[in-house]
Amino acid sequence: MPKTLLARNAAVLVTMDDDRREIRGGGLYVEDNRIVAVGPSGTLPETADEVIDLGGHVVVPGLVNTHHHMYQSLTRAVPAAADAELFGWLKTLYPIWGRLTPEMIAVSTKTAMAELMLSGCTTTSDHLYVFPNGCRLDDSIAAAREVGMRFHASRGAMSVGESDGGLPPDALVEKEADILADTRRVIEAFHDPARHAMTRIVAAPCSPFSVSRDLMRETAHLARAYGVSMHTHLAENDNDVAYSRERFGLTPAEYAEDLGWVGPDVWHAHCVKLGEAGIKLFGRTGTGVAHCPCSNMRLASGIAPIRTMRCEGVPVGLGVDGSASNDSGHLLAEARQALLLQRVGYGPSALTAREALEIATRGGARVLGRDDIGHLAPGMSADFAAFDLRDLAFAGALSDPVGALLFCAPARAALTVIDGRVVVREGRPTTIDLPVLVERHNRLSETLISGG
Ligand SMILES: [Zn+2]
């Protein structure tokens, strides 16, 4: 007998399905980890192993985070990196990150995931690209499994250090043969291509300014041989573009195309300066973009032209980016910033609230190459979140509860369900002892930053 869950009587249930249905008094019925029925509560089975009444709540598909560096939760708001652009910010923080330990990776991953789940996020990627002192991707995968979050673990890498004209210190780069061997190892050990998979592996050299052409090409061959996605940073700001032109004689988009880094199995973070031709290329090839508005503002990188990208057919998802350049991991807040920033750049109709929510759900699912998450319908994974409309933040905003979710102060999820399992109940994580975790996280952060 499958385990069943019935969530019903939502003020509004936003399906984000192909018809973008919003159901007043809606609910869903779940068997094990899959949605079996979605609709007005009166049309659903009357009982289940667990019944949750969502009166006064708005329910949305679980949000999808397409770009993060969770270890950076240990180095938020570091004063020396507080007022720098990308390259200066990185150079300040690299030596600190060089002291990371496996325990720090595990704890910071849990902290970052707690933040995400409390913001309604159910699937996240993480781009880990520093592996000092015995750190491994395995450390963050183990943490994700403990916490119960759907996880796309990106095996990042840096191979071109300062002495070879790259940005990172030599001590933080790995040999390319080792990177490829370890990427192969984690794919074979952890990657699950099946529908409803909780763990997938992504091949993800850090950026054009920290790895070689060869590694980018070899990674693409390896990823495609195994059928895993590829991810990196691209065209983040003007200096990033200048580096690409100087070193490779190509724009970032041309460089990506030259390397075979375009296609529906590839997504790039930022793309603030992708350019008109780059946007057309990405649209034509179905290459995805992880839009990270808070980070782009924090580092003064610019405004990614998301409106234009969507018009040109570029798949766009949302990313909180690393916690050292955000310095938050609240995905609903990120959707709000996406909405606001697009308007700063391109006018009041550049993005609607519902489009911002669509990018955060369906958009992210497409970017990660998944057909089982991002909207609520029978056969989809049971990933959803509920927000309490009686919260102070929504006072006076109930004429449009869905719009309110994006326009009002970013709320905490009251309920988050991942793969049919309640991971946030009444606004509290069920798989994490939050005060204990935060205390441990802060202790490790102090050790890391002080070098002691
Ligand atoms: Zn990033």
From TrEMBL:
Family: Belongs to the metallo-dependent hydrolases superfamily. ATZ/TRZ family.
EC number: 3.5.4.32
CDD domains documented for this protein: ATZ_TRZ_like
Record bears the keyword Phosphoprotein: no
Key words, A-Z: Hydrolase, Metal-binding, Zinc
Keyword Metal-binding carried by entry: yes
Protein name, UniProt field: 8-oxoguanine deaminase
Domain Amidohydrolase-related: 58-422
Database matches in InterPro entries: Amidohydro-rel, Metal-dep_hydrolase_composite, Metal_Hydrolase, MTA/SAH_deaminase
GO MF: 8-oxoguanine deaminase activity; deaminase activity; metal ion binding
Pfam short name (any one): Amidohydro_1
Species per Swiss-Prot/TrEMBL record: Segnochrobactrum spirostomi
Lineage of origin: Bacteria, Pseudomonadati, Pseudomonadota, Alphaproteobacteria, Hyphomicrobiales
